[in-house]
Amino acid sequence: MNFKTIYHFLIDLQINNNRTWFNDNKQRYLEAKELFDTFVDQLIQGLKTIDDTIDVENAKECVFRIYRDTRFSKNKAPYKENFGASIARGGRKSPFAGYYIHIELDRSFVGGGIYHPDSRVLKAIRQHIFEHPEAFKRIINDKNFKAYFPEVYGDKLKMAPKGFSKDFSDINLLKHKDYAVIHELDNDFFMQDDVVKQLLKIYEIQKPFNDFLNKSFEKIQ
To answer: Could you give the CA distance from residue 10 to residue 17 in angstroms, rounded to a whole number?
Structure first.
């Protein structure tokens, strides 16, 4: 797959992030998007051999739009300077833990989990960890997991979350606001012939983390 087409478009978009340039280069965008969609389709099919909860059929259900909502942002650039997709049960808007891919010049990464969960989901995750701290620690401290994901990504509370004692021995595990992981990828990663195979290897290592998080949904009333 020719990821250079994607990168060249994103490089130029980064320099010319405005509607006039984008409209003049709409065909280039469509070509880059088609390549990315094909790539995501391949990831979906591969993930289905690893995780039988994946029920999406194609990239359309997983790929994020390039158009930014600038209404409440100081950054008024109209377009995202990346291509991203979340592959999870129910697609990109799913509350479930899934697998993420992000392609951006010098800022690409692979990962997943649950980012910015709503309050009910966050409470359920914390409760599940509270009841099974050793199982969660075995997952995040596994040497293969830590090689790609050295820490849980995202913001943390300074104090114990409401409803949990500060004296709980693993209280730091409950302070996360996000239960996500990321592994940064350099630009050359996508120049390999076996990109999909390499990503599926990483996703397979990540899967127990997702499984644990998704088990917590059983606790939501």
So the answer is: 10
Question: What residues does 86 pair with on adjacent strands?
Answer: 100
Using DSSP, state whether 52 is helix, strand or coil.
coil
- The token pair at 161 is 């979350």
CA distances from 23 to 16, 33, 78 (A): 11, 15, 12
Q: For residue 42, which of 199, 152, 212, 170 has the smallest C-alpha distance?
A: 199
Cα–Cα dist 139/179, whole Å: 13
- pTM summary value: 0.94
User: What residue segments make up the domains of the chain, in order of their start?
Assistant: 3-219
Section 37-52 average pLDDT: 98
The 10s digit of each residue's pLDDT in 180-189 is 999 999 999 9
Gap between the terminal Cα atoms of the chain: 45
Distances (CA, A) of 132 to 22, 34, 90, 203, 217: 50, 43, 26, 23, 14
Which value, in Å, is the radius of gyration of the alpha carbons in the chain?
A: 19
The alpha helices in 54-95, defined as continuous H runs, are: none
Q: Which amino acid is at 80?
A: K
Nearest C-alpha neighbor of 63 from the set 98, 114, 19, 27? 98
Query: pLDDT tens digit string along 193-205?
Result: 999 999 999 999 9
- How buried is residue 194: exposed, middle or buried, by Cβ count under 10 Å (0-12/13-18/19+)? exposed
Residue position matching structure tokens 């808007």: 93
Class of domain 3-219: alpha beta
Q: Give the closest residue to 217 by CA, choosing from 123, 112, 116.
A: 123
